[in-house]
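From the shared-data thread, chain only:
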Amino acid sequence: MSMPRRSRGRSLVELFQRTSSQEQTGLSTTSTIDQLLNEAGSFGLYQKIQFFLVGLLAVLPAMTAFNYVFIAATPDHRCQLNLTNFTDTFQIQSPEHQRYVNEYIPLIPKYRKCYIYVNISGDKILNKCSNYVFDTTFYNTTISTEWNLVCHDLHLKAITQNAYIMGTSGSLLSGIMSDKLGRRTTMYSLILLMVIVLNSTQLLMHSKMTDTKKLVIFTISRFLTGFAQTTYSITLVLLLEMTSANRRVLASNILSYFYTLGMLKNSKFRLNLFFLLLVNQVS
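Structure, as tokens:
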């Protein structure tokens, strides 16, 4: 049976009076905030609703943090052959195609993906690739296949990921913003920034700009996305501040489950495992 509102108010006043008397007598006491949370309810309906709503926001940073594994995947590849009778593909099309591959593609694994033999004055000379063909068994199109970020341009792909890591270091700035503007205002602002950046990048990637300009825009987008992703740490602090000390481990674990949900694919087994862990943790 819940405590009447008036009697609860008197109990809170008595709590402040007891805390003041303990401080005056020099007795050790826990923080006033923790005492108030224990008195009002350490993990009641309000906290549960907030955890659910804020947990949904934590799904988006997880999706943007780990989607790079798929959008920048580098499938198996080799140099593209300059054939006139048919279009070259990574998959072998015929015995004749296999003969061309054996003739112009080096057998040494060190050179097989990035070099090709070129006939110059009757001599076969090893040369760098200018175009590539990719294995489409698992990936159709990624930034590596679309912009040829392999072999001698592989460092450009690393720059895009480094830009994201530099953006996540902006957690220092987002921490200052959350203290000045408030946790929720900063959290909503970062989520809005992430949505705007992701949608703008999507539109620009389908424009008629050159691949070089698209790569620059994508790198800037990764930096801003990394900065916006720091909203997860703010949500964690926000939820811990509204939970008593004996429930903060549970609070952080529940938020981690929502973050993990953003990493999951459409797998019934993984979703069932997620909810099983959530129920066990709450109980």
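Residues 30-73+153-273 form a domain with the Growth Hormone; Chain: A; fold (CATH 1.20.1250.20).
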